[in-house]
Amino acid sequence: MSDAPIIWITGNEVSELVSLEDAIEALEEGLALEGRGEAQNVAKALGTWGDGNSMHALGSMFPGAGYVGFKTWANTKHGAGAIFELFSAETGALMAVIEAGLLGQLRTSGISGLATKWMAKPDASEMALIGTGKSALLQVAAIAAVRPLKRLRVFSPTEEHRKAFVKNAAALLAFDVVEATTLREATKGAEIVTIMTRAREPFFSSADIDRGAHLNAVGAILPKFGEFHQDIFDRATMVVVDHIPNAKIASFEFRKRYDGGGGSWDDVKELCAIIAAKTTRPADADITLFKALGMGISDLSVAKMVYERARAKGIGQEIPKPQRVQARWRSGRKASAV
């Protein structure tokens, strides 16, 4: 593998190589490794500037499988860019650079699907979606991959966005898609609720969700922003995140609750631990809560599958290997040596 060329894998090639269902499978394998202590995250590096702009880095390690990697990205009001760099765990050599826009969408939606697989009622068929942004449809598709959905109810406070999403989703999905004109109209009777918004202040409360439901809270991933009120924690029988250190850094809701708000971080579980212990939803659970903030293992799980399939199929553009070169300097040198 050390002699293999470095390859650049485009977003179109990622789409060709890995489906959403594949990504959920890869994530389950990666989190199982984490649960057995065979994979590790590097906590997120996060910087913010201006009004809502941010830059991020997430690292991860699968030493037994031979891979380590970093995803780095910047997000602004005017656009975003992301790449994943895959390295050999044995030699440190760069193996691939992967355009990570779609990769990020696959792992973000896929982790919601995986959490729902482990935490929602097995026969849950009614879903509410709050938020209709660019990744919302994949969030629905991820739930449909793990539960027999019969109906989706959609709410966004912007009527134009809501109607456009419902029209598009209804044309693509094999189950009923219904517009909800209020938040409660969307969530009443829903067994799975996903909130993925750009909310800056909490808006979702305990009164907005029925007993027996599972809540995926996957928006608001910056420390100053929040989607749900603290009374959600009061009802949550299971509280699960993708990575606790990232929650301690980046989740407004969790920091407010568990950093002096009367809760204990010991009550929060990581999804890898749920999978490793094969923990199922308690029969008498009120609600279950999953918060995803992004972690390196999620990215590496999908990137590993992308890379191995690319190599097997001869996909990816070769790029030059880095070379060690001598630095130039002038200060203090003899004139004849300059």
The rounded distance between the terminal residues' Cα atoms is 41 Å
Average pLDDT rating: 94
Total domains, how many?
Answer: 2
Low-confidence stretches: none
Strand content: 25-35%
Which descriptor suits the 3D outline?
globular
Give the full name of the CATH homologous superfamily of the largest domain.
NAD(P)-binding Rossmann-like Domain
Strand order of the largest sheet: 9-8-7-10-11-14-12-13
User: What is the CATH class of the largest domain?
Assistant: Alpha Beta
- Please report the total strand number as a whole number: 15
**What portion of residues is helical?**
25-40%
From the 3D coordinates, which CATH architecture of the largest domain would you assign? 3-Layer(aba) Sandwich
Labels describing this entry:
Rossmann fold, 26% strand, ornithine cyclodeaminase, domain 1, alpha/beta, 2 domains, single chain, 15 strands, 338 residues, 7-stranded mixed β-sheet, 11 helices
SSE blueprint:
Layout: E1 6-9, H1 11-17, H2 20-35, E2 40-49, E3 53-62, E4 67-76, E5 79-88, E6 94-99, H3 101-119, E7 126-130, H4 136-144, E8 151-155, H5 159-172, E9 176-179, H6 183-187, E10 192-195, E11 214-217, H7 231-235, E12 236-241, H8 244-250, H9 252-258, E13 269-270, H10 271-276, E14 287-291, H11 296-313, E15 317-319
Parallel strand pairs: 1-6, 7-8, 7-10, 8-9, 10-11, 11-14, 12-13, 12-14
Antiparallel strand pairs: 1-15, 2-3, 3-4, 4-5, 5-6
Helix pairs in contact: 2-3, 2-11, 3-4, 3-11
